Amino acid sequence: MSAAPPAPIEGVSSLAPVPASPTAPNKRSNRSSLSSSSISSSSSSSSFRSKGKKAAAEVDDWPRLSEPLTQTLDRYQHKILAVRRQLIDQPDDDLTIFRFLRGWNMDVDKSSEQINKMMAFRKQANLDEIRAKAKDMHQTQFPFAEKFMKCYPHTVTHSYDHQGQPVSIERIGLANPSLLTKVMKLEEMLQYHYYHMEHKAAMVAAKSRESDKVIRTCKIMDLSGLGRQHLNRKGMAWFQRIIQVSQDNYPEMLGSLYVINTPWVFEICWKMVKPWLNENTLSKIQILGSNYQDTLRKVIDPTDLPKLFGGECTCESKGGCVLQIDADQGMTLVDIGARNTHTVEIPISDSDLGVKGSSILWEFRTRKHNLAFGYKFVNSKGVTITIVENKKYDSDSELVCGSYNATETGVFSLIFDNTYSRFTGKSLLYMYELTKLDNEEDSASILLDSSPTESSQTGD
User: Fold this and answer.
1) Where are the domains positioned within the chain?
2) What pLDDT was estimated at residue 278?
3) Domains 27-318 and 332-443 share a fold
């Protein structure tokens, strides 16, 4: 008998403990201070076909949304007890075990194995502490929320559908995976994801108890704007990590998924992916293309459906139905003409120097085309201490970040060079941060400590 397929899920995970927030060093900056998705999955192997008619019949007998939760759990109590006999640590409720059983085709051995792994993860990551914090938080309060929301517009819970499922919205077509992998570290994105999903898991568990029904989630996934720019290899690898974490730990959280505004490129991908999914997973997904308004209005009250998607809601008092932070927030915009340069001089005085000196961190990108960049430091005596020659960077597709530590007073200069471009001007977005270094740990910053990548382009 082949192994049971991975569980179709609303990605919920809880792995890493939350690090203590370091005390912020004394900073001077040209930026405003900064304060990820929900990421969800519903996937399985085609091996479900080998499980046999009996197993398939048990799995397909779901969900009876009108059936009381207690009745559902009573019907499967023999399976739940069989799983409990194989567990090292016991989950708090039978519903958790039932979700794993349902996710792994009622396979007691496989469900027990996965629950044991999940419980070990919870103990290792102090997940109960994360849930205790996350359950009453708004998504803007999750760790690294501001960074993530700049690159991935989404709302964790917008409203509820007619079945009582919390509705989340993701505008994947407006996401910027390239920028995401530059302004965040993988560990930071995972932390946001853990808080997001623990918040949702706590909410679904509470709603299930209150309604005496098995409550799952509803998701609207808007793909308008999806294109080649979303095929960022590093970004895809990060999201694959999140999906795997979610599959392994929180099965059967997804109740329904509506994919809307699908571009032609999605049709190609879907033909490849669809054969891999079992009937149970496929039954949750509706690919609606551009004709989705009537369907969404049938499952979600128009007053709770965003106007953007054919409803009446604007969430005007909340800043919009889909939360997104301006990715340009805190950055300075400069237009550099063809054959010109732009230099940013950052004076470093005695008051800026700590015991270990001062750290200058910067990041920049361009809206179109590449740009050359270099920097230099001249001390207060007029002596050039450091100079890095200008090099071209693919700043239109990657966020370029860097840092320099100064140990004396002087002027540090960021040099943006467009002299090689004969006809094309460049729109530059940049920010910098000057931080005292009083000890070895003060170099921590919200800016990434990453090395720039040189441009492969030779022209404008």
Assistant:
1) 27-318, 332-443
2) 57
3) no
pTM of the predicted model over 0.85: no
What is the C-alpha to C-alpha distance for residues 225 and 40, in angstroms, rounded to an integer? 19
Half-sphere exposure of 228 (CA within 13 A, CB side): 1
- Kindly list the averaged pLDDT for each block of 10 residues, start to end, along the chain of length 460: 42 32 40 33 33 39 67 93 96 92 91 95 86 94 91 92 94 84 86 92 93 92 82 80 81 90 78 63 83 94 94 86 75 94 96 90 89 95 91 84 91 96 94 82 40 43
State the burial class of residue 78 (Cβ atoms within 10 Å of its Cβ: 0-12, 13-18, 19+).
exposed
* CA-closest candidate to residue 252, choices 54, 68, 103, 390: 103
What span, in angstroms and rounded, lies between the C-alpha atoms of 347 and 16? 40
Distance of alpha carbon 136 from alpha carbon 283, whole angstroms: 32
- The residue assigned the tokens 């471009």 is 421
- The DSSP code sequence of 66-82 is TS-HHHHHHHTHHHHHH
- Beta carbons of 359 and 405 less than 8 angstroms apart: yes
Q: Which residues contact 398 (CB under 8 A, 6 or more apart)?
A: 178, 182, 365, 453
* CATH homologous superfamily, domain 332-443: GOLD domain (2.60.120.680)
Q: List the beta bridge partners of residue 97.
A: none
Give the three-class secondary structure for 102: helix
Distance (Å, rounded) from C-alpha 27 to C-alpha 173?
35
- The CATH code that applies to domain 27-318 is 3.40.525.10
Instruction: State whether residue 376 is helix, strand or coil.
Output: strand
Peptide bond into 452 cis (omega under 30): no
Q: How many CB atoms lie within 10 A of CB 6?
A: 23
